[in-house]
Amino acid sequence: MSSKRNKFKCRQRGFSLLELMVTVAVLAIVTGVAAPSFRSMQMRSRLTAAANELNAVLQTARMEAVKSNGRVELCPSSNGSSCDGNDWKRLIVVAKKGNVETVLQEVSLNGKGIEISASSNIGNGNKIWYQADGLVRVGGNAGSAHHQGVLSVCIKELSGENARYVQMHMGRISTARRASGNCGAPTNF
Q1: CB 80 within 8 A of CB 90
Q2: Sequence-ordered alpha helix ranges (H) in 69-111
Q3: Parallel, antiparallel, or unpaired for β 128-130 and 148-155?
Q4: Which pTM was predicted?
Q5: Distance between CA 27 and CA 25 in Å, rounded?
Q6: For residue 39, what are the domain limits?
């Protein structure tokens, strides 16, 4: 009788194969459901980071114009030294004093899937500039310049809220979320 008591008192530790299989199955289901959400979250984060970096570059150009009491341009560049590009993913900030141009900053917004396009009034002269008064000018030459413009930062692969608009109006720069669906040029406001 005493040997039977000892058998019941001695319990085994650990878990069974069935418990392990159930745990692994639940983990696989949770991971399968969560993985697409993480990818979407990562793309949204990349989109917001690119829009914020573009906003910071515009703020830098504006402050540099006020500080130097002169004209500072922001424009696409193919070589990093002149305003000769069409792709807004590679930009330069150029200070202009008379006929002298000095590149202050070169920026590459090369996140995977990022597309940047300009509203039509920016595309006219393909540049954005600030004068010493801190007000933005976009488009053609000084006589035909507008005081507002929009740059769209977009990821096509992202569904819903796939664009951020970096808006410039007078001296103010703001970023807004847009659920545009496509990555075309934004409209002027």
Answers
A1: yes
A2: none
A3: unpaired
A4: 0.77
A5: 5
A6: 18-67+110-178
